[in-house]
Design goal:
seven-stranded mixed beta sheet; globular; alpha/beta; Rossmann fold; two-stranded antiparallel sheet
Length: about 220
């Protein structure tokens, strides 16, 4: 398989057509080899527009969605980042290439261990990997300039919003199947936030995500 041609096709045919046009993001897709982060048995699927199973009932997001979420985070070189859901470690690598430091937390210890090996193999050192449940935040290293959720949540989580620095951005996919909305929430003052709907999609929920109150008739 010609991985470089497949990578080029992924960027040109999937990622660009999904409104990912930020050149530093596109550059990172060429520089960080996605095939090295997928499970070995699925290596030839690394550039296909699909979710890839990781085990433990979890999935690697489709390439165009990974790239779009990274773009919408509006990373700056000095940013401190919290990633909720390490998964394959690929989005961790993309975030690390755009920021000062990434704290990535996954509830599955095996994912943490495997991501540590993959990131080390790529020489990526500005990442701290931890195992735990960070769906309501990871207060030991808060506040953050960017919080990135790699799974969906059914409703807004105030604890995450309060973990943002002034000017910080929370990127999350909110809602219930079959339609969810990617949102960017920015902290504009100590008590105020701006909220922007970005696009519609549908992905698996994060484990233990808080549930909204629902009326029962």
């Amino acid at each position: 398989m010609d991985f470089e041609q497949a990578r080029f096709n992924m960027v040109e045919q999937q990622v660009r057509t999904w409104e990912v046009l930020d050149q530093p993001v596109l550059d990172s897709l060429f520089r960080i080899h996605r095939e090295d982060f997928v499970p070995s048995q699925h290596r030839t699927l690394a550039f296909i527009d699909m979710e890839i199973p990781l085990g433990h009932g979890e999935f690697m997001l489709a390439p165009k969605l990974e790239a779009r979420l990274i773009q919408e985070a509006l990373f700056q070189p000095g940013d401190s980042v919290l990633e909720v859901g390490t998964g394959s470690g690929y989005m961790t690598a993309l975030a690390a290439s755009r920021s000062l430091h990434v704290v990535s937390v996954d509830i599955v210890g095996e994912f943490t261990d495997e991501a540590r090996q993959k990131l080390a193999a790529h020489g990526i050192t500005n990442v701290t990997l931890e195992t735990g449940d960070a769906v309501r935040g990871w207060s030991s290293r808060a506040p953050y300039d960017v919080i990135l959720l790699t799974g969906s949540v059914p409703c807004a989580i105030p604890e995450l919003e309060r973990s943002l620095n002034l000017g910080g951005r929370l990127i999350q996919i909110v809602g219930d199947p079959p339609v969810m909305t990617a949102r960017r929430i920015k902290r504009v003052s100590d008590a105020a936030y701006s909220r922007e709907g970005l696009f519609e999609t549908c992905i698996k929920a994060l484990r233990n995500a808080p549930q909204p109150e629902r009326f029962v008739f």
